[in-house]
Every structure is written in C-alpha cells, then in structure tokens.
Amino acid sequence: MLFELLLNYVETFTFLNVFKYITFRTGLSFFTSLFITLIIGGPFIRLFSNRKIFNPIREDGPTGHIVKKIGTPTMGGVIILIGLILSVLLWADLTNIYILFCLYIVFSFGILGAYDDYKKIRNRNSIGISSRFKIIMQILVALFGLIALTYFVEYEEFKNLYFPFLKNLIINLGWFFIPFSIFVIVGSSNAVNLTDGLDGLATVPVILVAACFAFISYVTGNIVFSEYLQILYIEGTGEISIFCGAIIGSCLGFLWFNAPPAKIFMGDTGSLSLGGSLGAVAIITKHEIVLAIAGGLFVLEALSVMVQVISFKLTGKRVFRMAPIHHHFEKKGWPESTVVIRFWIISIILTMIALATLKLR
Predict the structure, then answer these.
(1) How confident is the model at residue 97, as a pLDDT?
(2) Contact yes or no for 65/255 (Cβ under 8 A)
(3) pTM
(4) Residue 122 binned pLDDT confidence (cut-offs 50, 70, 90)
(5) Rounded to an integer, what distance in angstroms lies between the CA atom of residue 199 and that of residue 203?
(6) Where are the chain's structural domains?
C-alpha cells in the first residue's frame, strides 16, 4: 500500500529507491508491527479485562494454573494480527501472489481461532468448537487457498519436495501436492496451538522459526545466493521476508505482555493463525521438511498428544503424566519458567540446525 505509493515518486525523489530493497522493507515491517503491537497492547488488555474476556483454564490441568492464570484475558492474537497485517499491507508488494496467499492464511485461520476463543469464553470452559469442525474448516480454508495459489504459480518445480542435506533427492508430488500442503499448513497450525499452554512458550519459538524463514525466503528469492547455496531459486519469494519480519515484530511486541506472568494470552486467535502462516511460508519456499526441523518443538508437542491418545485408547495407560508434554514436566515438579526457558533453548538449537541445512547439501 504505502510501498506502492512511494514507488510512484521514485523518479522525482531518488532517495526513495531504498524502498525497493527487500531488506530495508523487512526492517520497516519488523519495527512497524512491533510498535503497533506495543501501542495497542495495553488498551486491548484493559478492554478485554473490562469485558471479562478471560481465558478458561483446563480443570484437569496443573493446580498452579487454576490459582495463577484464572482471570487472565485471552484472544491476544487479535493484537498480533493487527500489527502483522497492517505492517504487511504497508510495506509488502500486494501484487505478489505469495504475499496474498500468506495474508489469506493468517487472516482466515485467525478468524477460525477467534470463533474458537469466543465459544470457550461464552461457554466458560476450555472446549470451544469441536476438534472435527476445527479440522474440517482448516482443511477447507487451506484447500481453497492452495487451489488459487497453484492456478497463479507456473514454475514446474512448485510441486516438488526437496530434502535437506540431500541436494539430489527430489520427489515430484504431482496430484499429491495439495493434500501434502494441506497437511503442512493444518499440522503446523495445530502444533503451534498445542504448544501455546504456558506464558511465552509458543511466542519465542514462533519468532525463531519466522526469523529462520525470513532468511530462507530472502536467499530463495535471490538468484545469486540461491545458486551459491545450491537451493531452488523462486522469483518473488523474497517478499515473504517482509511477512516474516512482521511476524517477528508483532510476536516480540506481544511477548512484552505475554512474558511470565502473562497479562494476556494469545489464544487460538494467535496460535492457529501463526502456525498456519508458518506452514504457508514453508510451502512457498519449498522448505517443508526444514520447517519440521526448525519447528521441532511444535512437532514434539503434537506427537506427545498423539502418543498419549493412542496409548490410552489401546492400553488404558498414559505415557505422560499430562499432554502436551510441557504439562508433563510441570506435573513432575518443574517450575513453569524452567519449562519455558528450557524449551526455548531447544527451539534455538533446532533453528540453528535448520539454517545449517542450507549449506550442508
């Protein structure tokens, strides 16, 4: 929006050429989303508190949560989405199909998450909408977006699956590309949602993964760097760095309020939309497996729930004291801050491994 307006005056004011640089606009996107989130965060928290938009606490959860977290506002994802979307609208090229796809995913999944949060608040429990309805809606939203994306994207390699560490191992997914991509987006969305159970636990890993993919999208969209790193060059994907910069800024601003003890929770409004958008970015840059590495913490949280459910249904026994796995360690007596910081450390390590895959091929 503002970016396109400024381009009209480049010939008159040559210093505006700086806005053509993706790195410059990524920085602007980061700071814009950060400042918007910091500015609106306080008023939104007061508004949600006055309207009693409180987070329903799981009755079977750790007893400390019932005491400490009850009465904390939720739906903080609204703050994140406002900062993120406004920043992207200001600084990204809105004619870029990849930017439009990411905006569609983050907004649509945010609406679904907001409806889930609304149901929890209205019913005063932690159930919300049914899991079946949530999954079906996520699949439909992702399906519609992917059909549109494949219609406008013409390069042949788009349906390929690339493996890190193995530069010559490439699988053409063909018709299976859309089901696989739906799995990536929906799986990423729900994995982040499951991770969002402690103060700041999901926010920092999202920042780290977004930073990783800001770099990946930039080098993927730069023909010089992509050739040097021997990765697929995809014209136009550099703009996704601006989207990732907005994620980092808005999440960092939100963390100011979400740091322990949290003044507000992001809720499904934030976690579903952020997770879905990370999946979308991974598909666009053709680094879906790298997402599983960088977001390994999200994968671990999701797997812990799956293992718990399967074990209980088959044997009647639970593998973990409570799932997702961060609650297991709480039940073992780890303080919440210890769990959060140690999981952050794991996420940092996994992000560094993911970045290393760009060169180790």
Answers:
(1) 96
(2) no
(3) 0.93
(4) confident
(5) 9
(6) 22-356
